[in-house]
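Its record is retained below.
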Amino acid sequence: MPSLDAARLRAELVRPTGPYAALDVVASTGSTNADLREAVTEGAADRTVLIAEQQTAGLGRRGRMWVSPPDTGLYLSVLLRPERVPFSGYGSLAVAAGLAVVDTATELGARVVLKWPNDVLARDGRGKCAGILAEAVASDENAVVLGLGVNVRRAREPVRPGPGSLPAVSLAELGARVTDRTKVARLLLASLHAREKRWRAARGDLAAAGLLADYRAHCATLGQEVKVTVAGAKALVGRAVDVDEAGALVLDTTSGRRTVFAGDVTHLRPAVE
């Protein structure tokens, strides 16, 4: 399979042609998020992009491994320095990123939905095609590193699901008309910029950014009976009724309404059409 075309991506996406400050493609690294976290302290510019053909230690939420085989997916991170967004607003960035993945998949012809807080699933419920990890980084100037892992083509070897997670599925298996990873990367980064620009201008307020209604429309978690597992706390079970302007999930439980800012969600019935 052809490698990512770094020169083409830079020509189309890096200033002065595009919105990004820098874009590099590496053959292999442990984790693009880890590399850009280090780059924050070295003064890397706002909207710096790193893409890896392969990750050997890719991570998802709560330190879980994100399997990143070569030639089949996109594994990229973007360093952002949204100086007007309060640190407390960084948590809603994953919502904007999730919408960018949905925009991309839809443009390609793949049918997907969002699962709160940061997974992209096949609309028919058969598996997970993308994950998102946003990590705030404290430095002289606050920053956030946004990681996206997207399965573009089916992996040659089966990928074992993580604990309680869905099987991996690719955009190609979901009907994507284009699986050239350079074209998918260009489309994804353009979609991310469009969504992130609105998020930044609204200082992380999803409603003010015009993103909240879109998220609600694409979020398969809403209306579901769910179990939410929160580290160090008893699991919550209830009906997911809303996502608020900060990106938190609102549940109706037997003990009343609860708002959850972070946690692992299990749909207690399949999210299908």
About this structure: The domain at 221-267 is CATH 2.30.30.100 (SH3 type barrels.). The radius of gyration is 18 Å. The longest helix spans residues 181-201.
